[in-house]
Specification:
2 copies of one chain form a homodimer. In chain A, about 20% of the residues lie in helices and about 25% in strands. Chain A is α+β, with helices and mostly antiparallel strands. Chain A folds into 2 domains: about 1-110, Winged helix-like DNA-binding domain superfamily/Winged helix DNA-binding domain (Arc Repressor Mutant, subunit A); about 115-205, Umud Fragment, subunit A (Ribbon), CATH 2.10.109.10. At the A-B interface, strand 4, helix 4, strand 5, strand 6 and strand 7 of A face helix 1, strand 2, strand 3, helix 4 and strand 5 of B. Strand 5 (about 125) of chain A pairs parallel with strand 3 of chain B, so a sheet runs across the interface. The structure holds a DNA duplex.
Chain lengths: ~210, ~210
DNA sequence: CCGTTTGGAGTACAAATGTTCACTTTTAGC
DNA sequence: GCTAAAAGTGAACATTTGTACTCCAAACGG
């Protein structure tokens, strides 16, 4: 079924059924998701996809699931799967002579949050001061994503409270106990006097470039 | 009820049922959304929020809507609003011995996307391959935030199409014309044969740490 | 040309949904 | 303590939901 370009009316009887119409359905879904961040119920999907029957909606969704664009929660709800967001990150290759990649309007819908935050309720941000972790490529002004937890493994980059101040260091331990290693020879290794006050583990990093411009 | 900004523990002695238990409901919702990318139906929400009645769910959602965390589609479906994705920014200082100083007033929030994206419609993401920009502290696997534009200034880090492949380099120019400098002596300077096919300027960086753990 | 496959329409129905309403419990202000 | 507001319960109900089923027409592959 096609849609009249001017009136928007459905043109019955016009063939459009081919395996390659799934990409079109997918685009509709992606656009809707970009706007509202949800996959609606069958009846609404029926309208969005311009289908006449809910059963057709079910078949479309099932096909998209087999292709890896959608999945279902344990409760049976439809949710976007990893592949659903793929097109929002630019591909590595571009046709020579045609340097503009897909300029679809949905590029921004991949929330950077989704990339960087796994457990929102335990996640907070911290702006890095100083260059004591430059060896780990974390610099002054960077914003680190911290997942709150009381314990961590040696080798992880953690945020800890030292002398009432939060600091980012690499956690390590030796025969004498826990220690916080800066990744910059200009700074001393910290050995907490009492208990180690761990705030959480650094799970990600966000940096603004081109600050002045 | 307050939530300890560092440990995340619910502060004891504070009764459970109060207007400020909404943060707890919000956290549950945020975590569920981070996992499945949808707001489920009332009956499922009832279980997630540990409520006994669906009507209570409705009231919670309505409260969160008034606070700006949720909104509704024209069809009435619940969807996350802007504030839903904001994160707390930790203060730099912590009281020694009592690492929970800043009350709600001191805590600010920040949307990661706001931090990194200025012009959503012209912004896209690109995963970095190779270590040719390690001197600028951009490494394999990092995601760069690219603002699409056809021109750039010398000294800016840009994304350009070279031989049909996207590459991240620092833009420069000399007497002979434009050139693309890697920030790694192991790589050669690129001098585009014809016109320089510029895709955009790198305005930010996102990195996931602790990938394996 | 004909049978098969595929994408969709249409119908039917048990189950689930969102909302309302009256009611109870808890909390906060005085 | 007393009281009013806030938060949550539980039942009721019209609507909507997802799915199973049959049927149909176009596309496909010899």
């Amino acid at each position: 079924m096609l849609i009249h370009p001017l009136t928007g009316a459905l043109l019955p009887g016009v063939p459009m059924r081919t395996a390659s119409s799934d990409p079109h359905y997918l685009s509709c879904l992606q656009d809707y998701y970009a706007r509202w961040r949800c996959i609606p119920a069958y009846e609404k999907l029926r309208r969005i996809l311009h289908l006449a029957s809910r059963s057709a909606v079910g078949k479309v969704l099932e096909r998209l699931r087999l292709q890896g664009f959608l999945e279902r929660t344990p409760d049976g709800d439809w949710v976007p799967a990893r592949r659903f967001f793929e097109r929002f990150v630019a591909g590595q290759h571009v046709q020579a002579g045609q340097p503009a990649p897909d300029t679809e309007a949905g590029l921004t819908t991949l929330l950077l949050d989704d990339l960087l935050v796994e457990t929102p309720s335990r996640t907070l941000l911290l702006t890095v001061r100083g260059d004591s972790m430059s060896g780990a490529n974390i610099f002054e002004g960077d914003v680190v994503i911290v997942e709150r937890q009381a314990t961590a493994l040696p080798g992880e980059i953690v945020v800890a409270a030292v002398d009432g101040e939060l600091t980012v260091k690499r956690l390590d331990r030796d025969a004498e106990g826990w220690l916080l290693r800066p990744e910059n020879p200009a700074y001393p290794v910290l050995r907490p006097a009492g208990a180690l006050e761990l705030m959480g583990v650094v799970t990600g990093l966000a940096r603004r470039l081109r600050r002045g411009a």
